[in-house]
Every structure is written in C-alpha cells, then in structure tokens.
Amino acid sequence: MIKVAVADSHPIIHKGIKASFKNSTEISITGKALVPDDLFDILERKMVDVIILELDLQKSDGLAVLRRIKNEYPGIRVLIFSNQPEEVYAISSLKAGASGYLNKKTSPTAIRHAILKIASGGMYITNELAQTIAFDESTGRPRRMFKKLSMREVEVLKMLCDGKRNKEIALELKLHEKTVSTYRSRIMKKLRVRNLVELVRKAQSIQVDSF
After folding, report:
1. Does a structural domain hold residue 134?
2. pTM for the whole structure
3. What pLDDT digit, counting tens, does each position of 176-203 carry?
4. Measuring CA to CA, how many Å separate 70 from each of 40, 76, 186, 210?
5. Which of 40, 32, 2, 1 is nearest to 16 (CA)?
6. CA separation for the pair 183, 153 (Å, rounded)
7. Does residue 35 contact residue 63 with C-beta atoms inside 8 Å?
8. Exposure pattern of 81-92 as b/e (b: 16+ CB <10 Å)?
C-alpha cells in the first residue's frame, strides 16, 4: 500500500482526493496538511511514500517547501498538484526535486497513474507537457522564453504575479531585498518586458494559453 500525504490550502481538495481513494487497495491517504508546518509534523510522525503538494500553500512558497522536503526527506517522492501553468512551473518543479506535475483540472484516474508511477521510481508529466518540452524550441512560441529562467527566478516571478512586494518576497525566501531586486531585473530582461505590469501580463498570458 502506497502511503500518501496531501498538502493543499483548500479543504475541498483534501476531501476530494480522500474520497477518490477511499476504496483503493493500492493507495492510502494517511495525512493532510493545510500549511507547511502541518506537513512536516506529519512527516516526523508517519511513514509517507508520496506527497501531493500544492504550489500555492498558505504561509509559504511551494517550491521552497519542495526543496526542504528533498533536503530533509530525500526518499519521499513529491507530486506537484497545482493550478499554475505547466509551461512556467513544471520544469522548475522537476529541477527542484519533484517527481511529477499535474494540473488540478485533471481526473482522479490521472492522479492514480501519477502516484503509482512516481512511487515505483518513475517520473510523471502529461503528454502535453512532454510535447511542449520536446518541441517548444522548434515552434518558436513565446512560452519558450520561460525556459531561460532559473528555479529561483521562477519563484520570484510567481510571487510578483501574486502581488507581493520585494520586501515580502525577500522575507519569504530569506533573501536580501537588493537580491530580490536583482532577480526582478534579470527576469524582466530575459522576458523582454519594461515594467511589472508587462511582466504579470506575460506570465498570465501563458497560463491562459495553456487551458
């Protein structure tokens, strides 16, 4: 039996996932967390094989939580389960140590397949994302520019799009405010935008295009 913990800020997600695997003989939902502290309490007390992790966790950034999981519990597999666009965040999540990435619009069947695959040591991404990774450079579509961003730059971009100020980002990521300003400038240069409004619009346009 694969033991799964779910870390998500929305109680309805916990109820839905638990109901989906209520009668499963393969997967057991053994823990739920609304905030990172709850998740790490679970990991200290229980045996967990797979974590289903939301990127937009309360009181923290999902990628930061992912890095901490992989540092403190390297044997646990992590499946990112998010509304954030795959084209922007999936690659950074995989680089940070995730074993898979699913959009929240997916079906319970896809969640099951993803859990089984990553629990057995594999990686899980959708066919659509695989095609994007494989063919983006040849198509020349604008979203290819997001590949130029480092994992940390993607984190900063996400927080900027959430309306957070440099000071808030610095506190959350434990960086100097000047360092955040540097990241912000690099992101704008790489994405060829002149101001924050254009930056947010470009990120949002990718999300709209992906649905």
Report:
1. no
2. 0.67
3. 999 999 999 998 888 888 888 888 777 7
4. 12, 7, 27, 28
5. 32
6. 6
7. no
8. bbebbbbbbbbb
- Can you read off the two tokens belonging to residue 193? 């935008």
Q: How many CA atoms lie within 13 A of 29 on its CB side?
A: 19
Give the pair of three-digit tokens for residue 183.
């990241």
**Which residues make Cβ contacts (< 8 Å) with residue 151, sequence separation at least 6?**
63, 92, 95, 96
How many Å is the maximal CA-CA distance in the chain?
Answer: 54
pLDDT of residue 159: 82
- Do 96 and 151 lie in one domain? The reply is no
> Quick one: 199 and 178 in the same domain?
yes
* CA–CA dist 66, 168 (Å, integer): 20
d(CA 36, CA 18): 19
Which token pair is 50? 């797979």
Tokens for 60, please give them: 């923290």
Per the CB < 8 A criterion, the answer to whether 88 and 94 are in contact is: no
What domain count does the chain have? 2
